[in-house]
Protein 1
Amino acid sequence: MLLPIADERQILELQERFSKSFPWLKIEFYSHSHHWKEGSLESEVIDLEKMIGEIRLNHERGILEIKSWYQTGRVEQDFKHLFGLNVQIFKLEKGKWKQTVSSDKLTLEQQREVVVPTRI
């Protein structure tokens, strides 16, 4: 998929386009970044009505290419490094959206197939 990134786009628009290409996944935008295999805090989720230009310092426009064989962590890092956007990818698991923290090395396609066990 090709995802156009520009300041005048709403977060909701990017989220919807991503989910249209990967219906078993969704992205959320955050005020702070996270490290590889780390989760993001729910309290830092950015309102979907905000414009991209309101949430980043890097105002470069461009197109983010996302392929189904890209690792989940790579996609998150590309948002950050190329466009200054902090995102976390979630997967639908047993009817609930879960952060892909423990499966950042899996590809987007593999996220559909694998159910990651939870820690007790």
Protein 2
Amino acid sequence: MLDKFTEKALKAVIASQQKAKELSHSKIGTEHLLLGLMTEGTGIPIRVLKAVGLTTKTLTEEISKSVPISARETPSISEITFSQQAIKALKSATKTAKGLGYIYVGSEHIFIAILNDDNFGAVKVLKSLNIDLDRIKDTVTRITTKRSLNRAHPEIQSSKKLTEITKAIQKSSWDIPFNIEDEITLEIFEHAKNEIIKQKIHHFGTEHFLLAMIKSDNSHLKVLLEEQGVNYDFIDNYLKTNNDKSSEFMGIDYQLTPAAHRALETSHEISVDLGYGTVKPEHILLGILKGNSGVALEILKALSINSQELFNKVIHPIEQQKPPTLSIIKLAKEEARRLEYNVVGTEHILLGLLCVGMGIASRVLNDLGITLKDARQEVEKIVGFGSSDINKEMTFTPRAKILLETAWEEAKTTGEERIESEHLLLAIIKLKDCMAMKVLTALGVDSIEISQGIVTVLEKKALRKSNNDATE
């Protein structure tokens, strides 16, 4: 549900959970979502609400009056889940964004979705404060509609096909933002599920991943975490002391907490940035450590563990391996920024392949007469310059995501454990309607030439290896 939410929108959702905790409410309602939008502190909704004189303090006081305390003791973050109204509002925000021509869901779309239903608690709170709802709704909608006319990346404008990751989210009751393909990662999720059942709860928090990593004998993270003093008994006792487990297990689908969802989403982004085709347990731990909230971080803090230092210990051996795709993706992001886009398209990945200057893909393209300078000129001609805030966090276009997934499939068919440059190039020629392939076609090469070029280089490489083995 949250896979297409912007960074600001996700921060607002996570802030709403924290606000519910502070108010001793066990459910996140639309009131808390509204409060989360104000707490996040930026964007269209906050400017409009401030313009009519509303403050975070006033809104908090009014919510305290209208929503009764639902727990005798302050609930822990991991126990606070979404109300049905909040789920409805977040789903409606996705539809609102789509209706206004946006691919991603921003804080303004959540705001509009909240105001669209008079039965929502947030609407009742605003009415009790004598806020002119029609006026602020019209203002936000007008500004948002105007902004949606800005130039977007062609692969976002034209993409109609959902990525496999998005399909997986729609089918998954856990709302996991990626396909689980790594066997050890799957084992981690199974261990986490068993912990949820054992604790008689139905929410899935960051602490369950931490417990699962400690329980998994197949994960090298168990050794690393235990060296830091993180062990199963400590976490188990911590949760017993800090969590109220009185609620009964209802046998419904497990629901990720906002912090857990964000951690998984971040883990997928990290896995892509590091050049991996699948999310591994270490990426999940990195996703947890990169966050700014969650019970797992509270547990590490209780052990006096510096999350940044642990992050460095986990990521250092991965970066030491220097997977080729890591350099390609970094260079692709730089190419996107140069063209004033905050999204990486397939054409930027093509430029990344040429920029890196090594590997099979670079060799094949150079043999076909494709130079970085010519490719850049063609990209500028076909795609043009964007009008995005390049300081924002980089994302991938839907076609670029499909390209990465296709490259991973190519890697698996050849028995590779990670994506190499030739897999990315093969994926480009398979996605005939992507911008990268349009650039290559404009430069006078076709998919058959590229495919044959890759086969030729691979055959030469295999022959050299065979000769070397023979001489040894």
Protein 3
Amino acid sequence: MKRWCELEAERPGLAAAGHALLYYYKIGLGYLATVRADGAPRVHPVCPTVAHGGLYVFVGNHSPKRGDLLRDGRYALHAFSTPETDDEFTVAGRAERVDDAAVRAVVYEAYTATGAHTSDDTLFELLLDRALHAKYGPRPSWPPVYSTWRAAPRPL
């Protein structure tokens, strides 16, 4: 798993396209898929935040997503659609709970600067295993041009 800043370093164009789609509406918007205890998928909208070199989400302390991520950190995040294009951006990997107060403060500042708000939600960093950007031409358009990235395994 790698951090957002490593995706930016390895594939700056892909990261920039993803950032633009995640922040298309000024506030970060995406659909977070998690794995329920029974193995079924669960999908909810979230407000992802790129800050402090990472990709983060605040998850409500009473949200089923929080339990999913604490039990089984696997996730997929897909950016909201835009009215102008059919472009897509998605990342997947494992979420890790962040308890460091200094990191939380930096991420919270970036999060609220977009107009989002939260109080005591749990902070997770979304570590990346893979990313995909689908770039479409003018409507109707098929197939898109795909850009993909996979995190190379870290040396043991």
